[in-house]
Amino acid sequence: MLLRQPPLLFAALTLSSLVHAEDLQLAPVEVTGSQASDGEVAQAQLKSVPGGTNYIDMNSVQQGRVSTNEDVFKYQAGVYAKAANNEGVKLSIRGSGLNRSPGAHASGLYEMFDGLPLTGPGGTPYELKDPLWQSRVEVLRGANGFDQGALALGGAVNYVTRTGYDAPKLQLRYEAGSKGYAQREISSGQVLGDADYYISLTDSESDGYQHQSAATGKGVAANFGYRFNPDLETRFYFRYRETTNDTPGKLTRSQISHDPRAANSLNAARDSKRLQPGSTWIANKTSLQLDDNARVEVGLAYHDYPMDLREGTNRLKVAYTDISSTLNYIRQDTLFGHDSKTTVGLRTTQAMPNNGASEYVRTPAGNTATYAPGTKTRDYSYLGSDTVLHIGNDLELVPDLWLTTGLAAIYTRRETQVTYPEGQAPLSQHDWDYAPRIGLRYDFTPQLQVYGNLSRSVEPPHAWSMIWGSNKYFTGGPAKGLAREGVSLKNQTATTLEIGGRGEAWLGQWDLALYRSEVRHELLSVETQAQTSTSNAIVAESNASPTVHQGVELSLLSPLWDGGRNGRLALRQAYTFSDFHYRDDDRFGDNTLPGIPRHYYQAQVRYSHPTGFYTSLNTEYSSRVAVDYANSYYAASYTLLGATLGYDAPKQDWQAWVDLRNLTNRRYANTVTPGYDDKGLDVARSTPADGRGIYTGVSWSWR
Prior knowledge:
The protein is mainly beta. 6% of the residues lie in helices and 53% in strands. The protein has one domain: TonB-dependent receptor, beta-barrel domain (Maltoporin, Chain A), CATH 2.40.170.20. The protein has a 25-stranded antiparallel sheet that branches. Strands 1-6-7-4-5 form a 5-stranded mixed sheet. A two-stranded antiparallel sheet has the order 2-3. InterPro entries: Beta-barrel_TonB, Beta-barrel_TonB_sf, Plug_dom, Plug_dom_sf, TonB-dep_rcpt-like. One of its GO terms (biological process) is siderophore transmembrane transport.
């Protein structure tokens, strides 16, 4: 029977917007209840959203090097992902976290594992997001993640783990390449009656491109599912990973042009490094089908992610633990004779009382010159909670015209307190807010859909930013010059209008979104004082005057030639235009917000043969990037070229590939962490991208 449920409408009529260029088809594909895989259902649900979304099949991504999430988000319109000589990726959607450094906990996005919260009051760490563990990645840009309880400006990202239903019984994978890079994986997944399991062990190492940038990582991901009956199933999840990353620091534009492999001299002298000694995520999700039209989903997740930061003159040992729970009721029925789907959800994340940091003298200098290494300077806490109650509805007003409405109530709490060397009064903030949403989508034909939506987003600050943004300092002892109490920050809010469409035409499969966000109290961070030989860098966060985020997101997958048994040629393109600027700021006028390029374009021409051989050429272009709020200096624009050659056996039992990166050995800044006003000087604010690289890999699967 043809699926006719509201979230599957567009794909039930046609599931022809496939993800891989090598699988490009323009003929409609009918999805039936017995045939639809989890991936097909997920694609259909994304196509029912009246706004910008992305579906990433990791089988396609893994036909080349998969080192970081920069590799995962290639060719994805509206998503900007850049790594910085380690696993930390600067991930930004519609200007979210545009001024964060890659090592900071991501801001402006709600990230999930398997539909359960990863993001908490402390932000989103990166070490548990090993790309090899994923089956697919779902992106709901902007307010389009509403039904997941995502209310941040950038939207939601859901990393979906493999299960026994889509994993080989045994798989071995090995990657190796330039600059000492190597990555290994062994995994297994099976269905055993009503139960299934998946487990993967990975480890990696790299000497790094810059000096002082070596990295290692190892971890395990597993899940176990059981179907008690057709109406009741449960799944347990486990992730553990530990990493070590040397920290080479930032360089000037001149250094990147002439000596990009150098480390920042202070980072090298201090042997700077960032350790994640062991992060753990444990969760359960249970689904109960109440009747033919309604189901309940309950989730619980525990997340512990300590850090040991040895990057400056002081050592910072950070404890982070939070517990999250979710409850969703989904009902499909008729309302006044019209098809309707309603979702009522509650999600909450609570930071545990042990959250906080202890700071110690590491390399005596400046204010700590007379103190021995290991002398404690400060203790302080990071506490908070996020709770969202949301209700949404999809209603078919007339055939093929759907009205989407929603309303969320948000309660956020943030608290921070310095308890050593002197106990200070805690800074505590409690805020109630709301986020409405309304949208329309219309399916003219199975090959053409248009949509529009109007929404509001709410983003609270991180508790740690309330300490780092403070201007009240200790005046004596080993804590001299360090913040002694927090500073109050307002929640960032935005009103966003989005219009767009998706479909198929003579030029191929296309997806276009245009949006404009009017942002108030934007949370912007800035390095107000660079690190010196006697002090650490000072990075402050504050609420900005009104800003605008607007842009265009366009993706296109075009068949260039179909030779049947002789193979196929296809072109894939993704373009993102980002215009983020102040609105009549007293200091910076209408200046561009720094940290993200205005124009960002990626393309790939791929030839694939029915026997499994494939080859591709790819390019990437980025316009220049402002490196300070005064727009007094810019990182240079760049254009890259790359190529891939590989073989993917038709029986999916083995695969081999060679991935050539940055063939012209272009020297450019991969990430920018902004300053306030550099007065036209070339200041060290950028991390260099890797130079020319050759990587190869092989995998074998028993299915």
